[in-house]
Model the fold of this input.
Amino acid sequence: MARQTITVTEPNDRWLKQKIEENEYASKSELINDLIRRQRELESERNWLRNELIKGEKSGLSTKSMAEILEEAKKRSK
Done:
């Protein structure tokens, strides 16, 4: 595992210490790794959504009604 040294502002350091004191995390390292993991997940979801929106824009206008579109979406989600 790679070791890093980081500098955080006082408010951020207080927040980190508070989370550890509240027993949400065992260490600052665990908390920082969780924050990075969550950010990576958010970026992945955002990229997926961006790609889906681009595909939708490229597909052009639909002649289907809203009810038909909704029904198709419901079928795909199952």
About this structure: The chain has a mean pLDDT of 95. Helices lie at 10-21, 28-59, 66-77. The radius of gyration is 21 Å.
